[in-house]
Specification:
CATH architecture of chain A: 2-Layer Sandwich
Order of helices and strands of chain A: EHEEHEH
Largest interface: A-B, 24 and 36 residues
Radius of gyration of chain A: 11 Å
Strand content of chain A: 15-25%
Oligomer: heterodimer
CATH topology of the largest domain in chain B: TIM Barrel
CATH class of chain A: Alpha Beta
Largest sheet of chain A: 4 strands, antiparallel
Number of domains of chain B: 3
Shape of chain A: globular
Number of domains of chain A: 1
CATH superfamily of chain A: HPr-like
Distance between the termini of chain A: 27 Å
Structural class of chain A: alpha+beta
Chain lengths: 85, 639
Amino acid sequence: MAERRVSVTSEVGLHARPAATFVQTAAKASYDVTIAKAGGTPVSAKSILSVLALDVRQGESIVISAEGEGADALLDELAQIAAAP
Amino acid sequence: MNTRRTPAGGEATGPGPLTGSGDGVTGQGALPGAGETGRKAPGTGGTATDQGSLPARREGAAGRAETETGPAPLTGPGSPGSLTGTAVSPGAGYGPAHVLAGEIPEPDKESRHGGDAATERARAERAVEEVAADLEARGARAGGEAQEVLGAQALMARDPSLAAEVGALIDRGVAAPRAVFDAFGKYRDLLAAAGGYLAERVTDLDDIRDRTIAVLTGLPMPGVPASAAEPFVLVARDLAPADTALLSKDVVAAFVTEQGGPTSHTAILARAMGVPAVVGCAGATAIAPGTPVLVDGGSGEVLLAPGPDRVAAARRAVEARRAALSAADGPGATADGHAVPLLANIGGPRDLPDALEHGAEGVGLYRTEFLFLDRASAPSAKEQEEAYRAVFEAFPGGRVVVRTLDSGADKPLAFLPPPEEEPNPALGERGLRMFRRYPEIMAAQLGALAAAAAGTSAKVQVMAPMVATAEEAEWFAEACRTAGLDSAGIMIEVPSAALRAADLVRAVDFFSIGTNDLTQYALAADRQVSAVAGLQDPWHPAVLDLIAMAASAASETGKGCGVCGEAAADPVLACVLVGMGVTSLSMGAPALPWVRAALARHTLDECRSAAVTARSAVSARDAKAAARAVLPGLEDLGL
């Protein structure tokens, strides 16, 4: 299981356009991809509603996890989206 | 009705819909009349629809119990059959009410399918896909922002977790419409509980749910007629993007919604369409369909079955406003010819067409951080130079005031990491303070500005944000001179800089007052904390005093002192600022015609008496009321 821990720096948090981009990217994977707030329960990173409902605000850390073919590259891409200001 | 936004509305749209980038650099200024609590006047007619049978909706937008001395209503307040809400898009609209509320009833709690779960699941999946595809198709037809909003809604409709939830309920025997209703309910509760931006998205979700249930049950799709014999006033609890995307001014005379605030879809799209709108209007959905309704998007008043004289008066008032606005053109000046350059606030070259269209004489605030946001490393000197040059060349011979990078803990940049966690970013290492830590970033920016300025005829002025002391002002001015820039100034945002303006002015060539931050610091009210938003009012006499101190220190040394905050976009306050000795005003482009017209109707002496009387008031509200009382020319602008 590969994992990335990222601090969200966007002013809008992981909402709005960053959330949509994040979910659309995760949806490309054929395997499960999860996102959790640090210490929280993981939810599907392919679900816009779950990601929005996490209510990740600016400055908060998230953990993204996945296991499968190319998971490392996908997680890097997701981490970059989540960390983009 | 021809104005896209209310005078102070240039920066007031907030985070916006799901696709909004929410840069947050600009202020949180309220629209005129915003903040009023919806009230229902006694004697309101109208038939209440059966609200008990409707799906639960989120509760109304939180209204503050605060009445603003906003624009004068077109009609007498408290008249029989009137409702009041928050005015979010100016102008008057009149037409029969088309009430759009709860056309999709909640599916029966106990409804079960026939037993073939797989078929029922496939039916639900098809319905969701049909709705998603329809949203996308509407988006494609509408284009622009609506397309992004509807695309985001389609993404919600196709949410795999939602589909799993629907499937699980159907497997337990629940009929598809009810399964859809319950599955959406879980997420709507989560979003509503989060409040703020997420709660605003509940409307989007409810719309997808209702559309899906309509497909499943064969009910007519909720929505708005795309054509009508005469333009109607669209009344709803709240409007979803799909409702509004294909509407035009030819069909809709005005919007009235029971819920929503200045950042709701209705508000944003109404302003974009130039259609009057009142949101947060309690009791609106009780208006009987077909009732003639007169909507004043400047005051927030909604009049039911008004007499023909009222309607005619409202139309005349709107026409007069339009004429008054279009009559004012040319450079900004008072009635007696005292010149006050009117400049635009911009975030980059993309804002130039709007600025030029509204008659900006130059740029009073070029927020360069937009060039630095959304990237992993600082823009190259060449890239910066090109962006700056594009702006300079748009105003040959005109003034362009550039604010150096205003980053900090609340607007962090990946390549300028904050040194430590700041418990209170507004008081942390931001603005010029960040440059003290990263002088090479400042040197690169000043160098690029000097290089871009060298090839143009624009009068380039450079200023630093968040300056607190004379020593900082000297340090920045010296850096500008080293870079070869002629005119170095500072923003007055920190009360210490205003209080000791006479010390700071010696080091620099000009001041520009950032009233949003100055207000935040003077009243110790964080702009990001909505609970203290009531204190974020530049009309507060303490703020006026600080502005006056800065303006008079500049004037004593013959230097300019502009204002580039939200305050400059308020046509009434603009007169007061000029009366206090402010020499130029810079604002979001849509406010320029209003401010130009307000100044043109008053002499410098009238502005001065407005300033004196405002500063002698004890509260922000009294200051505004006192100033208005001595500015007679506001009335024909409907201000």
